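Workshop exercise sheet. Pairs work together: one partner reads the sequence aloud, the other fills in the structure field after running the prediction. Swap roles for the next sheet.
Pair: D.N. / O.F.
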Amino acid sequence: MLHALAEHVLGPLFWHDISNAKKQDDRAAARLFSGAALKFHSENFSDQKGLSVYLFILGELVDAWQNRSIPHLDRIKMVLRARFFLMAWRSHIKAHPDHKLSTQFISRESYDIFLTLCDSLISLIIVYRQYFPTYPLLPWLHSTEVCEHLFGMLRQLKKDFNYTDVLNFERKLRAMMLGAFGNLSPDEQANQTSAGYHHTYFTADDLDMAELLRYPTEGEIAEASDRAYAEAEQLLTHLGINADVVLKDYVDPVFDAITAPSRTLSHRSRPPQNFAELLALYQPVPFKSSKDEEVFEACELALVSESLDQSLKM
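Structure field:
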């Protein structure tokens, strides 16, 4: 479906947005969930109603976090609509005799992330309303975007950096931010070293501070929830899914705990390639004497010193 959208000569997507797309290409994601892509798809691929609804729901979920001007009440309605839709979709696939969650549904990791995005935004709004009512909530800043930008700059200085390197590079990072990038716009500064990311946390052209300071009441949130469900129900009905029926049988998924990988060597494991990897094999092993432990700690300090010397040379 997306391939046809990208192949269309008048389409808003590029071929590299779909084929072998970079996982960190924020611009490709922005184009996919843009209003232009949704409009073009609904007009030119009217038989693919499911994809159009999916693009709308997920695009609204992202916009609820990134929009600079809409009221917080609208954000709540947008994320609740996405939550109701995703829950109903999953319940429908699970109950269908010919469908499997592993084939006809998104990955369990994506599902968990999307629900977390819905719940955490509502939680943020309630927390700000209760504890910080005089401060505006800027949800797009409650993310790892700033850290990703900083890490991109650090990787230019040293690809494999550690916490000590971050402290040592503090002055150089400040000089890079205030010196070499001084003539660039804030948005250009944010993306100069993004290494695939497209950072927008500096963008605030349409900032509406009055709306960002207005927090909804519990009654308004309840009304927004009812409207969100009604809209999700209409979208699901358009796709032939009865929201009331499938949500009645909805059960929260239980994911298996992720077990930590074993650190013991097997006959298929790659042998240690350097001294640091060799030391890592001995970390979970108890020492027979205090002397052995002292030798091990001395080796660790030697590795730290070597890494620090390399950083200082830079």
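Discussion prompt: Residues 146-191 form one domain. What would you look at next?
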